[in-house]
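Q: What structure does this chain adopt?
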Amino acid sequence: MSVSEAEKEKEIVAQWIDEKNIKIEQANTIKIESYYYLCVSNCYDHKDYLKENGFMWNGYGMKKAWVKKIPSQSLKSEEAKLLKLPNIKLKVAAKK
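A:
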């Protein structure tokens, strides 16, 4: 595929998703990245810890929870850290 053909396809795809999320790569270098949204609630006592560790209150459109966007391969280690905190509720979500 030529560069101009790739740019035309990029314009078509940009009709449905934000153009900043489109990247043109050679076919042999493509990698797929996936993310989860780790949501923590019932955690007022731990809000400072969550903030220091990259969580945002009502982040990413989630309501009444501290949220952090994490790569899927980091899910187990992030959950393990949080499950050490007493009395929290933990939920893993994919974006709507």
